[in-house]
């Protein structure tokens, strides 16, 4: 299979529409572009249209109108070529529970045209890669959730796809299994595989995605790197906890030149807030400025905008998994 031209988009969607009975538009004039070699995180609330979009991109559903190219091929007119270029691990994938992992991988290889010996070697290679060598000859019906998701990934990789579609690959996994799958996704991407990732976990998108797209009501409502998206909804906030209430006025004066200062809020009379794009980098200047004004500080807590803040701003709701965002980082000023 010829390699994907690195100068051409791996996924290119223009004016994509998918309507269902009753005039319901699950995808509404969607424009989307994913660069070759990128990990693209695709987020959206339930019913936003992301699953419909993925099914179109993987040739499982025809669009009503518009166009979609994957690996440079049209998903309607060149569906067979698209399928040869992509790997797909969908949540609803049907796997025979009576077959072993090795048998399934060999069968997948045969379906992709590999000769018997090549299919056997590829199965062994992939079982080793996803950490299933010891379970290779056990029936899949006895696999744990984490093992099943790793097998799904291996099955999607049999034919060395140029573009890999992962539909919520770590849903229901324990933290250890999730971290292992993240490592494998990063490794695949470093080898040149483009990854289109749908997820309900904001931490997953932040950890893995080069760029994130948020879909709502069938339209792309926000797109960019996690850092850029978060900067659009607000600046990092430093929560400066003072040693006494009397020094709040001097603290505000000391910090005036470092960002947007808020005096102590009701009920927290020893706390001054400073909003600044510098984030953590502002901590040393803050400590120095307060020291020059003779203000004693107990602690500084940095609160960064989160992807959940972005999601809430553009969709009006929180995304499942928002609770997995890291807590604000506290810095002892003593």
Which short descriptors sum up this protein?
disordered C terminus; 33% helix; Alpha-Beta Plaits
Q: Could you please describe the fold and organization of this structure?
A:
The chain is α/β, with parallel strands linked by helices and 334 residues long. Helix content is 33%, strand content 26%. The chain has helices at 50-57, 79-85, 101-111, 116-129, 145-157, 175-190, 202-208, 226-233, 248-255, 283-292, 307-315, and strands at 9-20, 24-35, 39-43, 65-70, 73-74, 86-89, 163-167, 194-198, 211-216, 219-224, 237-242, 260-262, 271-275, 297-303, 329-332. The chain has a six-stranded mixed β-sheet, sandwiched between helices. The chain starts with 8 loop residues before the first strand and ends with a strand.
Summarize the SSE layout with pairings.
Layout: E1 9-20, E2 24-35, E3 39-43, H1 50-57, E4 65-70, E5 73-74, H2 79-85, E6 86-89, H3 101-111, H4 116-129, H5 145-157, E7 163-167, H6 175-190, E8 194-198, H7 202-208, E9 211-216, E10 219-224, H8 226-233, E11 237-242, H9 248-255, E12 260-262, E13 271-275, H10 283-292, E14 297-303, H11 307-315, E15 329-332
Helix pairs in contact: 3-4, 4-5, 8-11, 9-10
